[in-house]
Amino acid sequence: MINIDNYTESDVEMKIILPLLKDKMPEGLQLEDYHIQTKSSLKKILIDKGTSQKLYYPDFAITILGVPLLIVEAKKPNEDLDEAYRQACLYANEINREFPKNINPCQLVIASDGIYIYAGNSDTNIPEFKIERSNWINTNVEFDSFLNKFSFNKLENTARNFRAKIGTGARFKNPINLLGGKKIRNLESSNSFGENISIQYRHLFNPNLEVEKNDIVKNAYVKLNKVESHILPIDNIFNKRLFDNEGTLIYDFENPTEITSKFENPKNLNNQVLLLIGSVGSGKSTFTTYLKEVALQENIRESTHWINLNLNDAPVNKEEIYKWTKKTIINNIKIKFNDIEFDSLSFILELYKEEIISLKKGVLSLFDESEIKYKELLAENILKYQNDIDLTLDKYILRLINEKKKELVIVLDNCDKRNVEEQLLMFEVANWLKDNIKTIVFLPIRDTTYENHKYDKPLDTVVKDLIFKINPPNLEQVLASRIGYISKLSNNNKDGFYLLDNGIKVKYPSKDEEKYLKSILNSLFNNNFFKKLISGFAGRNIRNGIEIFLDFCKSGHINEAEITKIIKSNSEYILPNHLISKVFIRGNKVYYTDSNSRIKNLFYSVPSDEIPDPFVRVSILKYLFDNRYTTDAHKSLTGYIKTDLLLKFLNSLGHDENRTIEELKLFLRLNLIENESLNPDFFNTQDLIKITSIGLANYEIIRNIDYLASVAEDMWYKDNILAEEITSNLSGNGEYAHLSIQSVSLHSRQLLNYLENYYKTNFSFINGKIIDTDFAPIDFNLLNSDINDFNKNIKTDSKPNLSKEKIYEASVLNIQHYGMICEIVDTSFFGLIHVSELPEDFLEKYSLGNTLKIKVKEFKTAHNKYNLVLAK
User: Fold this and answer.
1) What is the pTM (predicted TM-score) of this model?
2) Is 634 found in the same domain as 543?
3) What are 210-219's pLDDT values in tens digits?
């Protein structure tokens, strides 16, 4: 056994106690790093009495499932272990004082000088175990008893029992669940005008066909410069990491000399791979199209023949993919030369002329050309040549490309939209093309794919000078350029239409569509908050940003009254902030649910947990946000934090590490966070993680009052009365209409009050008591202040002042069996059109968002609503 007489206290900690805590059973307690809070982070607590009173903190505190269970004190060999054990007991008891009466989670203590281990309960200064180190073996009865009492499994069971006591087994209720089933949860509002536009112009916003891409790069291409790039500071971390030493960044999309200069002599690029690296949706395909159609000089375009292979269509097994690749190249060549009759005998004889000449010099020389046998042998061999796909491919390239003094460029598009195994197969195809066909292989791939596979073939053979990187263009400019092109085309396009309430198709001039798109664009990008929001949710993915914009355009929350204002204002009208928030958060849905929205509910919890935790999601993002400029000590990656450090920190604040891990996995899949391996399907507690722009946008929207009101609808409440009250409001039985600005104020305040009370009851007693931190998941005072400011801007009419003689417009907000709740346009009032005032088929006839002509019948003071009737 090692002589430890000269060990320091630090040696005892690192070489004896930590192995005991972390080693697998039956040699150790089998704890993870994130269970072990170390002295550097522990809070000093006043212990003892009288003249002996002092500030003290131990060497380790063990927290499992967010519960402090065990205090560990280290001493150097032969120091006073009895005193060390006593002080650790005092510390444990002080921690227990912070918890509710008769709940004492921190019941165990360990003290060791490396020679002995003292262990037992914290309520007595007399250790239950005093075991000499020579007996720390699994065959020793006393050590085995110690392991059974202090092992992870035993501690975890204790933690679960504690959490069950705190949780009290209460039944949680969710307003959306109380409201109804899937049909209610998925209820949508309609905007046929916006839907028609998004369909009619989808080929301009999201071109898929090559002819559509050609049209865009020639008429609506964004000519990027470095300053205008759609890159947020949080994303620059990855760019710096990837391209400090590898590849060339293209700054000017209009004149990308970095890459066009390589094509000055295309022959030199044969059997080479050119990499174009960019994020998902950054415009790699569009840039490739621009390169071959516009950016390259005309003489280079004339001397190259480009073929695009969409690997989304490729089979995913080795037996078929090479055959598919060869056939697809041949078919692409045929499409390019559609003036040639490929089945004609003259073309076939020309295609295989070398083989036919050789055949004539050989076996065919035995026969006269007029003989049937001659013709049979010739036909037989031609069929053999045609069935030889490798020969046929070589001949097509030779005859139609090389002999025309052109070089072949094969673009392998979508090679990385696969799982890992299929992705590697696509790379094998790229490598085969490079080695077996006289071609330039142009490979647009994701930055994450390059990072994960740069040491695999063919990426490992790529010349550094042939690696290029693009940043995504500015999203606002992309949208503006597409809308500008729509404006140019408007005189040649057919008018759009949308459906009136009675189902009649009403035609709109295409100029109205243009006005609508411009107004939506201005509404989103003229406000810094919403501009930051859409940019954040798009991240580096411009394609995703365009989808967000199109989804916004077709949201049914933009009702007919708003559309009319847009068109009458000649696109100068800006949507109200309250409406923009509503569309962002709800999309086309009437009710908010976490599963249906791209904006996640950061206060969502799982009701089956011992203590449902509505703060774990927001705590994850806040911790990563607070550390976004931290540099990892080992790998010098700014913004990246080791996963087990986050787990350890949140564990010390009362969060169950198992729930935290599940939420981390979800956030990886949803791209709210990003791991070091850049693989969302991979999770390891030793991996580095950071917050992404999408995570940042989700975190920063917390201060939006519409967000708070929306997530209040899909919350699990311990307060069942509150859940039922919110459900009543959602169903139209509350004082205000469900989507009214007054309901937004009410629900946001109810949510915040509930969260603050729940936090005090279940988490505040541990926060800052184990480790020295003032971390809180949210700033309740700040959010309350935000709601107060929001309320100041709510327009209220203290007296009902609408005329019974006048006809008003009203927008349908809610449809129930008893009638329809409507918002009276340009007023702060709402009203009910009772079922008795509606046609029998009103449930089928009307949709949410419809604008109706109505008259006021009477004002109901008790409900603060008007009774309305349809205007005749």
Assistant:
1) 0.83
2) no
3) 888 888 999 8
